[in-house]
Each structure stands twice: as structure tokens, then as C-alpha cells.
Amino acid sequence: MNASNSIKVTNTVDQSVPPSLRVDDAPRETSERNLVSDFAGPIVVFILFIGFWYLLSTRLLPPQKRFLLPTPHRVVQEGFLTWSVGEQRGLKPILRSLWDSIKIAVIGLFITILIGTTLATLMATRRWMERATWPYLVALQSAPILAMTPLIRALIDGITLQRILVVVLIAFFPIVNNTLFGLLSVDKSQHELFTLHGASKFTRLRKLQFPAAMPNIFVGLRISAGLSVIGAVVGDFYFRQGGVVGIGAQIDIYRGRLWGAELIAAIILASVFGLVVFILFGLLSKVAIGKWHTTTRGR
Questions:
Q1: pTM
Q2: Which of 1, 2, 15, 290 is 20 to 30 A from 228 in CA distance terms?
Q3: SS3 85
Q4: CA-angle at 186, arms to 181 and 187, nearest 5°
Q5: 3 state SS for 120-158
Q6: Distance from C-alpha of 133 to C-alpha of 185, rounded to nearest angstrom
Q7: Which of 139, 141, 167, 142 has the alpha carbon at shortest distance from 152?
Q8: Cα 107 to Cα 16, 32, 104, distances in angstroms
């Protein structure tokens, strides 16, 4: 009799708890709310951007300048839905030039990662190397790359090598800086533990410093990945001979001929490429780091 009464009381208490306050439903509601906010925010901003674009191209700009900023539907029609009109207009030449820039950006980024990570490792393990090279790395980061283009053209033969060098120069510093910072910011007590066990420098670097530096390394990779796209476009502008090479050269042609729709379409595709590279390294960061690091937001 008492057991049945206790069961009834328990059932009554459970039924009296509001559904919104039940512990089991809280994670699901939080996940759904985060999912809505993750998609709703970008969609709202995109709608506002398109609305402002229409307002600017049809009302705010003077009539004699509106051809410089075509409306979004005209950009889609002439820049994306028209495959080819001659050698320069249409989507086909834009995609061909974009593919050429993608190859330059990827090759330059690979070289940057290889050299930058090696240099940062040497700087982290040898203090004299850090003191000797750090001022020059800062100077390289501050140097105007555009002003160096005549020097690059004079010292290096071959358009491809010149463009790759521009990518490396622009994307180099974040890799070195973030990798070095991560390798040097390991807690002192962990170093003392490895010293207590007689670990070698290589073991310390492989099992302690590099795993701890992974979040900073991937931050540098994401920054350098975006900069490599900028470097490829800049190299396209200033290193081309004869035919059109790269999306930057294509943009320069459209700018000179006042082809507004194709110009904006080429800029959009170059920006999308940079965004894709940035997101790709973000996904690689999540795979490599997981959810253990403090920078990972709780869901």
C-alpha cells in the first residue's frame, strides 16, 4: 500500500514539472536554438546586403555612374549565367582564370607552411635563431609588397615563380608567428615534468610542444590561407605577360573596360575561394583539436 502511494506521488511530481524546465530537454532546445541562430544570422545579413545593393545601384548612385555597379540580377545574368561571349566575357574565362589563381595560391601556401613551420621550430628550440631572425620577419611583414614587385621581376625569371613568391611573402609571417607562440607558451610545470623524466629535445617537441601548439598553429594556417588568396590576386595584377593569367588579371581587364557585371562576378568568385579555404582549415582545426581546447565553444 505504501509502495503504491509512493509511486503515485512520484508520478504526480514528474507531471508537475513544466516541459521547458526538464533537464533532458534543455540540451536539445539549446542545440535547436544554436542551429537557428547559426543559419538565421547569415541569411538576414545577406538579405540586408542585397537590399542595400539594390538601393545603391538604383537610387543612391547618380544615373551616370550606375553602370559601374549593376544590380544583383544583372550580375547573375551576365556574370554567372552567360557561359562565354568571345574570349573575355562570360563565366568561362572567369573560371579559367580562377583555376589558375587557385593553383598558384595552393602551391604558395604549401611552401609557406613547410618553410614557416620549420623556421618556427628552429626558433623555438634555439634562442639565438629567434633573436637573429625575428626583426627581419617583422620587417618583411611591414614591407609594402607592391613596392617590391619591380625587384621581384628583376631578380626572378618566370611569371609563375614570381607569383608564387608574392604568395609566400604575404602569407609567411602568420605561420611563423603563431607556430612560434604556440611552441613557446607551454606551461613551465609541464616542461619540468619532461625534464624530470630525462626527455630529449625531440621528444619534448613531439609529445609536448607541438600538441599544445596545435590551436595556435591552426589559427596561423587559417590566416595564411586567406592571405595566400590575396597574394595570388596581387601577383596576377603585377606579373603577367601576353595573355590573361589569373583572376586578378581578369579583374584588371574588366576594370579597364568598365564591364561592371563581369568585374563583380570575378570579385565574388575570388572572395568565395578565399572563404572556402578559410572554412576548410577551420574544419581541419576541429578534426585535429577536437573539443578539448578552451577556445572551442560549448554547444
A1: 0.81
A2: 290
A3: strand
A4: 140
A5: HHHHHHCHHHHHHHHHHHHHHHHCCHHHHHHHHHHHCCC
A6: 19
A7: 167
A8: 64, 40, 5
